[in-house]
Specification:
The complex is a heterodimer of chains A (362) and B (395).
Chain A: H1 10-23, H2 28-35, E1 44-55, E2 58-65, E3 78-85, E4 88-95, E5 107-112, H3 118-125, E6 132-139, E7 151-157, H4 161-174, E8 179-186, H5 195-204, E9 208-214, H6 215-218, H7 226-229, E10 237-241, H8 244-256, E11 263-266, E12 280-284, E13 290-293, H9 299-305, E14 323-333, E15 339-340, E16 346-348, E17 352-360
Parallel strand pairs in A: 7-8, 7-10, 8-9, 10-11, 12-17
Antiparallel strand pairs in A: 1-2, 1-6, 2-5, 3-4, 3-6, 12-13, 14-15, 14-16, 14-17
Chain B: H1 14-34, H2 37-60, H3 67-93, H4 118-131, H5 162-171, H6 173-178, H7 184-188, H8 194-222, H9 227-253, H10 271-281, H11 289-294, H12 301-306, H13 315-329, H14 338-351, H15 386-394
The chains are: A alpha/beta (362), B mainly alpha (395).
The complex binds FE2/S2 (inorganic) cluster.
Keywords (chain A): 2Fe-2S, FAD, Flavoprotein, Iron, Iron-sulfur, Metal-binding, Oxidoreductase
GO molecular function (chain A): 2 iron, 2 sulfur cluster binding; metal ion binding; oxidoreductase activity
Protein name (chain A): 2Fe-2S iron-sulfur cluster binding domain-containing protein
């Protein structure tokens, strides 16, 4: 985890350096955080200020970031948030729904509780204001250029509205929401986030067209219907965010018509929990070697077979020499049978096997 | 000699040994499944306490010119260093808190307040000492390459000085530990990879520099006219920590009853036998909650050696179950009050400064064997016995 520098001047940097000499092997932040948990930049942190319900199962978390946070994200980007639940930290990514540089120095994400997502449920229904969370800096390239293109189209399904909301709010604030169309599908009216705000936005801006689509009644929007809803879509730069099948369909359609360069897509990769059957393709490091493994070959053995210089000590799960962060996928601990798959969680390669495809960060 | 010939175990059948292994695996699985908020609260509480104590000690020592402040500050700082090394650093670097997925309390990046770099300690301690516990020629913790701690180790006239070396080791324990992973014996024999040696020396140099700068220059300087008072206070606090950790650590494997093993016993050792070796090679001591906290729960050395990466606050409960296993299978479980455990250790150190023929010993010595220190590449690689573990987990 890289932290953003907070030393804006060289004098500050020198003071910090001196402070570090006094607190080694810890950092001054470790002591300052005893006074105020936000006074640390060892890791970006934030305090949950408010939890605002959006729909029955979605809420906006307003977070006041601590030291090291730079309020210069591009609308459309997402952040990582690490929340402690029953002693463990769980990390997820959510799009920022707030505009950059807001008054009061807070950021917000909007979270929708997923049926089997215990963390999203906790965020929506269980998080107390005042909770300290860990943060990871904004990332992602689902952003619009500044100045924005003349004609824009936003295709949104479900919680895909959050990054688009940030984009629309920013355009609204800057007064550059010229000619834009939003086609937003949700199952029914109560399930549609930011409905009120979007309607109000459409009322204020002549050029902004807002199509509400309720799939319980109207069915899912197919690419073929695009001409009916937005006849000039071919002239527009398009941003799409929503469930995978919808994105697949539109990506295909744009490709067939040779317009893929004008489509910007954001996918929410949901960790598929509970995949049965072990084994899969293991990748060692970004772009590193890849091997097929069965459910009995440990990640350590697999790596050695692939010629990767894997660190190991005891090979029996006691010394943690072999620990490696898991970049993607899930693994199973052979001793307990437990599965692990938090992003960036350290796994002991000598006693872990792959459950489906996974990637190790080497 | 194979493992089955170790006298304390000869009454056990192979099936019994496997059954013991399964019971211990089961204890581990239970604790793993049950780790949660209470455990996290425990470690964060200890960390907060330790940091407050350290800060308070440092601040008090700004007034170190006044004897009461000197005394109070030294005790606070020394206690903070003890807590940091024992309960926090040692256990965190074992990976006991890795399950929290908290990057700030994680074995991969923890650095502790002593002269040995964490990375080297994780090799010499987590790997070498914990896997090859009490195996002569493998486990460099037996006497730290300075003391003769087993009748199986050859006597030389050098050993006559043991009482003195022992006192020096206690006082300057952190330095002994700092040099531990260098493997002086390998260097002496010219077997050490010079590249590795250079890297390790640089790591140690960096760490020592920072530690010494902090304790012996920065803080004394900040006390202004109290420079030398603060310096002596910091020095005393470090000695306090050194003597204490030396004593606790020596009580873990050297009281009477803790057995040393030979290389041959490692051959084809199964996971269950590994467990047995940990039980027989370690020794506990008894005491109150505060004593256990200040010793990093190493009074539960046996439990720690069976499950080095389970949270330390669980050892007290685990001990009840382990003791019960030992009772049912008639396996020794070495424990006693701290003073008795250390007394026995001290007696052994004194006794072994003399050649074997001058002393008698209890228990009777193992047959002497040829031994030499091994390089990592020569050490046997353990197999993980996947089949057994998977079966145990699904049973
Ligand atoms: S190699 Fe020791 S825990 Fe994996």
């Amino acid at each position: 985890m890289t932290s953003a520098p907070i030393e804006r001047t060289s004098a500050l940097r020198r003071i910090r350096h001196l402070g570090k000499a006094l607190t080694t092997p810890l950092s001054p932040d470790d002591y300052l955080a005893l006074v105020n948990p936000l006074w640390s930049q060892r890791e970006l942190r934030g305090r949950v200020e408010k939890v605002v319900p959006e729909t029955e199962n979605a809420a906006t978390l307003v977070i006041r970031p601590g030291w090291g946070w730079r309020f210069d994200h591009s609308p459309g980007q997402y952040i990582g948030i690490g929340v402690e639940l029953d002693g463990r930290f769980h990390w997820r990514s959510y799009s920022l729904s707030s505009t950059p540089l807001v008054e009061g120095k807070t950021v917000s994400i909007t979270v929708k509780a997923m049926p089997e997502g215990f963390l999203s449920d906790h965020l929506v229904n269980g998080l107390e204001p005042g909770t300290i969370v860990r943060l990871a800096s904004p990332q992602g390239d689902f952003v619009i250029p500044d100045p924005p293109p003349d004609k824009m189209l936003f295709l949104v399904g479900g919680s895909g509205i959050t990054p688009v909301m940030s984009i629309l709010r920013t355009l609204d604030r800057r007064g550059t929401l010229a000619d834009a169309t939003l086609i937003y599908s949700a199952r029914f009216e109560e399930d549609m986030m930011f409905l009120h705000e979007l309607r109000e936005l459409a009322g204020r801006h002549e050029g902004f067209t807002f199509h509400e689509r309720f799939t319980d009644v109207d069915g899912i929007l197919t690419p073929e219907q695009l001409d009916d809803v937005c006849h000039d879509w071919m002239d527009r730069e398009t941003w799409a965010c929503g469930p995978a099948p919808m994105l697949d369909a539109f990506t295909d359609h744009f490709q067939r018509l040779g317009r893929e360069d004008h489509l910007h897509v954001e996918r929410f990769t949901l960790a598929t929990a509970g995949t049965e059957g072990a084994g899969g393709t293991v990748t060692f490091g970004d772009g590193g070697p890849t091997v097929e493994v069965d459910g009995a070959t440990t990640l350590l053995e697999a790596g050695e077979k692939a010629g990767v210089n894997m660190l190991f000590g005891c090979r029996m799960g006691i010394c943690h020499t072999c620990d490696v962060p898991l970049a993607a996928g899930r693994v199973r601990d052979l001793r307990s049978g437990d599965e692990h798959g938090e992003p960036n969680e350290y796994v002991q390669t000598c006693i872990s096997v792959a459950v489906g495809d996974c990637t190790l960060a080497l | 000699m194979a493992f089955a010939d170790v006298r304390e175990y000869t009454h056990l059948t192979d099936e019994e040994v496997e059954a013991i292994g399964r019971e211990l695996d089961e204890i581990r699985a239970q604790v793993e499944a049950d780790r949660g908020q209470a455990d996290r609260d425990y470690v964060t509480r200890v960390i907060t306490l330790q940091r407050r104590l350290a800060a308070a000690g440092r601040i008090t020592l700004f007034a170190s010119m006044f004897p009461p402040a000197w005394l109070l500050g030294t005790v606070m700082l020394g206690s903070a260093k003890i807590l940091e090394n024992m309960e926090i650093g040692h256990n965190t670097m074992h990976g006991q808190w890795d399950w929290m997925n908290d990057p700030e309390i994680h074995s991969s990046n923890w650095e502790w307040d002593t002269t040995q770099p964490a990375e080297q300690w994780k090799h010499s301690h987590n790997y070498i000492h914990h896997q090859f516990t009490n195996v002569l020629g493998h486990d460099n913790d037996i006497g730290y390459g300075i003391l003769r701690m087993s009748r199986d180790q050859k006597w030389t006239p050098y050993n006559l000085g043991q009482p003195v070396y022992n006192a020096l080791l206690a006082l300057f324990f952190e330095w002994g530990v700092a040099l531990h992973d260098l493997d002086i014996e390998a260097i002496r024999k010219g077997k050490k990879d010079p590249k590795l040696l250079k890297k390790q020396l640089k790591q140690i140099g960096d760490k020592v520099g920072k530690q010494a700068f902090k304790d012996y220059l920065m803080y004394p300087a900040l006390s202004g006219p109290g420079f030398f008072h603060t310096l002596s206070a910091n020095f005393t606090a470090n000695i306090m920590r050194n003597v204490w950790s030396y004593m606790i650590i020596f009580c873990g494997h050297f009281p009477d009853g803790a057995v040393h093993f030979s290389e041959e016993e490692l051959e084809d050792e199964t996971r269950a036998e590994w467990y047995l070796r940990q039980m027989l090679g370690s020794a506990n001591f008894e005491g109150g909650k505060l004593l256990h906290l200040m010793s990093g729960q190493l009074g539960y050395q046996i439990e720690h050696h069976l499950f080095p990466d389970l949270p330390s606050n669980r050892y007290a409960d685990i001990a009840v179950k382990v003791k019960d296993i030992c009772r049912r299978y008639d396996i020794p479980y070495t424990t006693g009050p701290l003073h008795k455990q250390y007394g026995q250790t001290l007696r052994t150190i004194m006794k072994l400064s003399l050649p074997n023929r001058r002393t008698t010993d209890n228990p009777a010595p193992l047959a002497p064997r040829k031994r030499r220190r091994l390089q990592d590449s020569e050490r046997p690689t353990r197999r993980t016995e996947l089949g057994k573990w998977s079966a145990a987990a699904s049973a």
